[in-house]
Amino acid sequence: MSSELLDALDMLEKEKGISRDIIIEAIEAALVSAYKRNFNQAQNVRTNFNLTTGSMHVYARKEVVDEVFDSRLEISLDEARKINPNYDIGDIVEIEVTPKDFGRIAAQTAKQVVTQRVREAERGIIYEEFIDREDDIMTGIVQRKDNRFAYVTLGRAEALLPTSEQMPNEQYSHNDRIKVYITKVEKTTKGPQIYISRTHPNLLKRLFELEVPEIFDGTVEIMSVAREAGDRSKISVHSDNPEVDPVGACVGPKGSRVQAVVDELNGEKIDIVKYSKDPVEFVANALSPSKVLEVIVNEEEKSTVVIVPDYQLSLAIGKRGQNARLAAKLTGWKIDIKSESDAREAGIYPVEEPLFSPEITLDDITVDAEEWEKDSDSVHESITDEDK
């Protein structure tokens, strides 16, 4: 082998990112395979690849014994000491057995083995790269689509976007750039298998981390996410810093931050609510944008009854129950929504005595004529006396 091979090794190391040691190991293993296959030799052999000159040598490894039964694997003590007087029983003697035309045969035979080992090493590098990216977000380019998957290129690897993980309001075309969430990375015989998603709730979380510096640096924390991909989502946010408004930080100036996330998700509506440890406040916030009059909490069953004004009932429940369903997922509490009038009929609202008496109607007022005349006369007399 010549200096061209060494140049090729340098190129492989730079382009593929594969260590030269791995490539050398692959070449030496290929040389052993080529030697045994082409020269019908079954004995233990070792190859040596000279990095300086690019030359290669094959050595037969034989054990020093008193009596030789297999000359391919053993050598007598007398023969061994002719090579080196220091050899003793049990030592291993290496004898060079490099054939004259081994270079040409080795190049032809070893090509496939070397290619395979390099491919395996490359797959290993890709796997190690992406196993660390599980539960992370990446930007990919759509290559093609069939009935089962959309195939998305992520750098040097191709990822699979299953139909079940595709947003219902999206169409994927060749060369479309999309942000995806890496759900799973598997090592297979064909290389690393990478699965991605556009519907996972954590995709929404990662997108906000990209757009909101306060979330990225930990000032604002996303506590929970509830999502119906392509239609509507809710996130709850919290900050330990009293000077930071977590909802405002996520919305951004003139809504620019949340709008960037909405645009990436093709118009998916996003409600941002403030988290609270108090379930009454948290559930009320989660049902935004509807107004809430009262939240009755059952700690044992982890359920709540939420009372809303009559005209807000449909808004609180949402289209096909979506708002209430997302609020329940976001808070982790069961939510039963009742209108104010239904709650009054059921006797569960108001929970406490009202702060103000009910308005008095004319039907509630009775007047005694004689008492009224006495009262009016006394009032008249008192006024007249004062005037005098």
Automatic annotation (TrEMBL):
Quaternary organization: Monomer. Binds directly to the core enzyme of the DNA-dependent RNA polymerase and to nascent RNA.
Subcellular location field: Cytoplasm
Annotated InterPro entries: KH_dom, KH_dom-like_a/b, KH_NusA_2nd, KH_sf_prok-type, NA-bd_OB-fold, NusA_N_sf, S1_domain, TF_NusA
Function field: Participates in both transcription termination and antitermination.
Domain of life the protein comes from: Bacteria
Occurrences of domain S1 motif (ranges): 135-199
Source species: Pallidibacillus thermolactis
Stored Pfam families: KH_NusA_1st, KH_NusA_2nd, NusA_N, S1
HAMAP family, A to Z: NusA_B
Protein name: Transcription termination/antitermination protein NusA
Assigned protein family: Belongs to the NusA family.
Lineage of origin: Bacteria, Bacillati, Bacillota, Bacilli, Bacillales
Keywords: Cytoplasm, RNA-binding, Transcription, Transcription antitermination, Transcription regulation, Transcription termination
Keyword Cell membrane: no
PROSITE patterns for the chain: KH_TYPE_1 (PS50084), S1 (PS50126)
